[in-house]
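[Solved] Which block belongs to which protein?

Original post:
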Amino acid sequence: MKWRAAVDRAVKPLGLTHATFSLLGVLTGLSRSGRRPSQRELADHTGLDPIYVSKLARALEKAGLVERPADPDDPRAVRLGLTERGREVITAAIDVVHDLHEELTASIGGSKGSENRRLRDTLQTLLGEIPTGGEEAMTAPRTIDGRDINVAAAATRSILTAVLKREGLTFEQYIVLRTAVLNGPATPAVLVETAAGPANAAGEPDVLRKTLDPLRDKGLADLGELVEATQRGRDLVERVTTEATAAGDRLFEGISGEDLATTKRVLNLVTERASEVRNAL
């Protein structure tokens, strides 16, 4: 309850509460994989009552942070997606909550400290279903699920977001600019499609397309029949890449090569299956 109250205070300037932050956070993770979940799916992921999720979603829609188009396959249901404003707000909120988490866990060594890891493991054990009286649990808790991956993705992306914030860039602007630098001049359509990646993993094409004018206005790209990064844009990408790489080295420090190799194989498999599941929806 204290944590929820602290988050309420921290995200209030952004027009959010702990509940709406949680909902937007889960929606962000699902959106990155190209999904537009229903309110029922969001309720399942957040553990909140479906009626409460519906109430929160309506409030977020009214605030211009989410959109709720009707489900073409079920007129009784709606699909939820983030608006551009919603992406900006949740990105800022994730940074705020991350800083709050570090502040509140500082007395036990921070969020990455051994005491905090033990605390987390204890809480996860208590939240799982444990066999009692010699009877088997009805269900065994998963070692890892989509929520773990979403949380890890948000945490690691927050590092890049912090670097980009100092440069005055959004994540989507950086992805498009980096693609222009790495792939050379391309038509706007090809550039955006390449930047979005498989299953739109890096963002929806419509959102990425809106970054072209701001990149031109910042002097980072030239727009014409072909989009080409300027020298200033190439220098910025090199600078961000160098800093993000150094941060990544610290992020993986102390993790064995074997563990990293296993993690990479599993994440590649999850990414492949996510594309298959998305295409089947």
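(Second protein starts here: sequence line, then its structure tokens.)
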Amino acid sequence: MQLQIGYEEITRFGVKELKNSEGELKAHFSKELNSCSLFLMPIQHSDPESIRFCEILIKELSSSLIFKTAAIDFPAAIYPGAHYSARCFLQYLIFENIEPGIVKQTLLNKLQEITGKNHRSIRDNRLGLFIPRTGRIICFSFAHSGSMYYRYRLAEFKLKAVPEGLSKYLLSLLCYCPGEYFLNGSRASGFILKINTFMEHSISHTVSSLAVDALKAGKFRSGHENVEKHFLESDPETIACEVPVWYEQPQNSKLRIDGVLTGHIDILRYEKNDMIGIWDYKPRAKYEKKAHMQVYLYALMLSQRTGIPLNKFLCGYFDSKDAYCFKAENAAENMSSPV
């Protein structure tokens, strides 16, 4: 699909003003930029082609990215308190909790498809201004199995939305994690537990769709790392990957553990329903027999570490076709002694 940009010459002044006023715009949108990237476009009030281009771009982007849109008077955004009217209003697209590089490349691709032009950089083109969000993704490696490293990745900029106990725990791992537990303790992946709970099966879950895109991109040799990094960059709800957790057995526990139980959560999400999602990537999810035990134990461990009750946790495992999930509190009610 290509669209002739009839308003390009008219809006050149507007885009130039955006670029010249980037500092003022960052100050104006400082709250949004804590977790969101923005793409700003001056749109002509009276030009149907200008409005049509904006509508087409938004429609094209909606198949690839999660975002919302808003519009304000053009001069008020750059010069708060201005009392004159402008021929443009400022349409801005808000991309929440997505890696800026992913947003920018998708924007470039869609702009090229629509206009038939090769835009090397959004900052340099005549259609709008891209402002990346602040914050970062932190990567910290743990030597928790001798020769193999676990790459703990944390989207620091997404933590403002999550419960305080979870946020504090995820940040504390950057300073302290008892590595000796992981070298000598029992692993959740090998722990056998009887759990009778209803598991919801889906062939159209968001996590499976994300896995398809991640494996298609294939940036790393490991399928796990491809999935984890893609989730963290492209999924607004994923806050961390390869999260170390451990469980120190309290008195009156149903679990009989030799020492300390340990594990690493593949995908940690803060779901839209305010549930903490614990997900494990299993390339053959349909044939898994013990994955539900593993993710339930992860929930138990994270609950102990954060003080957040089990009724706030959702457990699941998935591949690019199938996803299975259940509520941790249901599993706790139906758990029996390990065999």
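Accepted answer:
You had them paired correctly. Confirming on the second one: The domain at 8-131 is CATH 3.30.70 (Alpha-Beta Plaits).
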